[in-house]
Amino acid sequence: MTLAILRSLPRVKVVGYTHRTATRRRARQLAVATEVASEITESVSRADLVVVATPVCSFDEIFGAIADALPVGCIVTDVGSTKVLAHRWATKRLPKTAYYAGSHPIAGSEQRGVEFARDDLFEQTTCILTTTKQTNRKAVQTLRRFWSILGCSVKLMTPAEHDRIFANISHLPHIMAAALMNANDVEELKLASQGFIDTSRVASGPANIWADVLLTNANNTIRGIDRITAELAKLKTAIKAQNKRQIEKLLEKARDKRRALINYKMKKRELIP
Amino acid sequence: MTLAILRSLPRVKVVGYTHRTATRRRARQLAVATEVASEITESVSRADLVVVATPVCSFDEIFGAIADALPVGCIVTDVGSTKVLAHRWATKRLPKTAYYAGSHPIAGSEQRGVEFARDDLFEQTTCILTTTKQTNRKAVQTLRRFWSILGCSVKLMTPAEHDRIFANISHLPHIMAAALMNANDVEELKLASQGFIDTSRVASGPANIWADVLLTNANNTIRGIDRITAELAKLKTAIKAQNKRQIEKLLEKARDKRRALINYKMKKRELIP
User: Would you say domain A163-267 falls under CATH 2.30.30.100?
Assistant: First the structure.
């Protein structure tokens, strides 16, 4: 995040803060920011823009901790993967003189830590900005420019719309990958080939980050688990009945839907053939 | 398959057969075999080795169709993804003068058709040979050499062991990918990023091939679906209860298991970091 800002906005001063002393030290050694503050209030006290990049459940506390230190007119955003609660906590905790909108840059990998920092993290990616009727328009324009300069194509959504869509495209795949790993014995997996490796990849993501994502998007995620469970039951019933036509129908439907998705992504140049 | 044999065993005569006239014509145009026979019996009548590469459920009929045309001492194998029924059908249909063992080269992609034929398909892959107490030892030695020459590292298993393991590492990921696609609306998936694309990739495999795989490995697959459903229910319960510690525990378990798998694969040089 900070490296991407330093590269794309070289005259901007990037002040980093993290609560762990050792991580602050490493961040200074690796020079991932112009400056690494030792206090959270110090890190935001002269900021034009504050980007919170911590697990979602910490936003409530962090917004509270920075509220009094924010300069008048400061824009606050976050890069969390769920948005309804982030907006709620911002409304509750941040002063009226600071302007909040949510950001969700769809970037990153299952790797985590300051060692994996990359300055091209956002190139060719999409960033969702979440806004409500209460959101300050100028703040949205500034954030739109900020993410564009970092290389993102920016899309606007409401927090509710965001959380519904991301439950389906992101949180459910994570849950399925985790369930696939947990349902199997590692000894039995030694012959696993690329199919298994790909299907389970996202399960290597950080557990604490993902726990917060699932907790803060509980209803959408639970509805998704119910839909997946129903689809698994359909396949099970067809297999149990040795109903070849029905199994083929279900697999063809899945194949057709994925083909439509891949075609769309290729047309948008978001996937390379 | 045939291209790989032609490249690795240039002095071997490869006779192809497929029941579709148009595919035979294309196979001749693309020269994927030394010769393409117009009758199935003709394709095997002078063979030392017969490789059946059709959907699993067709083996019963195909073994029956070739039985009388097989030369004495001919070795018969198949490249299907399930093995218990393949062995049962071979025992029932093939003459005692022909020697059967199952093969499962773990290669190929979700693409299919003679246009996607590749002569390096088996390089750096594993091929499982399935054998029972009845299997002819010399036939196993010949098949072992055959697959080794094509570039495979060969492993022996019983058909039952094979089908149990492949239900877990291959058939279940396919079912999950299909369920994930079918549980979602394509319109809602337009923002899907690499995580979703990877998790769902195997759902693009051919429906008729996979229907046969699931039908012929029904019990193992159903047991797998039940285990996955139980794991999904555990996650759902923890999310519903907003039990952060329990969600983290389940996600950490999945992450640890996948790390162990990836480490094993890297040590065996089956995955490049």
Answer: no
Q: Does domain B2-157 have CATH number 3.40.50.720?
A: yes
Question: Which chain B positions have a beta carbon within 8 Å of A152's beta carbon?
Answer: none
Q: Tell whether A228 lies on the interface with B, counting CB pairs under 8 A.
A: yes
Record: contact A239-B221, CB cut-off 8 A: yes
Residues B223-238 have pLDDT tens digits of 999 999 999 999 999 9
Q: Does A260 touch chain B (CB under 8 A)?
A: yes
Torsion sign over Cα B199, B205, B208, B213: negative
Tens-place pLDDT, residues B140-170: 999 999 999 999 999 999 999 999 999 999 9
DSSP B190-243: TT--HHHHHHHGGGGS-HHHHHHHHHTTHHHHHHHHHHHHHHHHHHHHHHHTT-
Q: Do A176 and B199 touch (CB under 8 A)?
A: yes
Q: Could you tell me the residue ranges of all domains in chain A?
A: 2-157, 163-267
CB pairs under 8 A between A and B: 291
% of chain B at pLDDT higher than 70? 95
